[in-house]
Amino acid sequence: MNTASFPHGIMFHHFWDHRHPAGQGAIGADDLVRLLRYLGPARILKAEDWLERAVAGRLEPHHLCLTFDDALLCQYDVALPVLDDFGLTAFWFIYSSVFEGQLRKMEVYRYLRTVAYPTVDDFYAHFEEVLGGSRYGDMAAQATAGFDPRRYLAEFPFYTDADRRFRFLRDRVLGHDPFEEIMDILVERAGLQAERLRHLLWMEDAHLKGLDDRGHVLGLHSYTHFTTLGEMSYAEQQREYLTNRRHLIAVTGHVPRAMAHPCNSYNQDTVAILDELGVEIGFRSNMVGAQGSRFELPRQDHALVMAEMEDR
Question: Is the pLDDT at 300 greater than 70, yes or no?
């Protein structure tokens, strides 16, 4: 079983079934059942219980909670019935822009590489081919000349070298707009229409209300889910979390008490903003800094738990 000696969350993103494709890192319902049994359901607290114990300082070293990021419909369709069978509730961290008509292309791009390429490495190769022929090609070549994947995102051991290089290009070389420019070329060439994917990829407000009514805890995950949120100004970060908070209050009728940092990107401004907004706990996206502040609670990616389970 998972042997970390401090309380932490287990972090989930993507799931697959007959409707949702089995992309990189996605698991099915049977996988989730095996994982929960491996962890030990008795260790897994319901989300509200975890929240109250965390605030009161009463979490015990063996305690776990379940967390789901990004309001993905596959989570509702595949994972929620399993949680119901186990009598468990979870934290669901929601970024709100997609609920208010602002398509967030990150999931569209994931869908692209899942359905349009034999493997994720085929996608990476095509991405770099198109990037190399673009106006950003020379800049990207210079920026990656000495790139060592072992030194980038080392705290996430489940990333391959190709994953790390892609994320380096996305976040540190290109930035948001140039990255989307390149990716939109690939989307168009694949014949996909991003707007038509909205209702396949994300939940809607009714799903969120249903989760809240059933005792799950909905938390902040910023408005846009930019991958480098912690590099924004104070005012920009404040706007991200205020608009995210406004949306969740409108859906649930109460103030969000929990959050998770998108892509683990935050700084002291983020912490100050969350404190001002009445947020009581926040989660990182890895196990680094396990003894950090109440806004830095650790989480273990499910992929690492799955790997540990398979090694046993």
Answer: yes
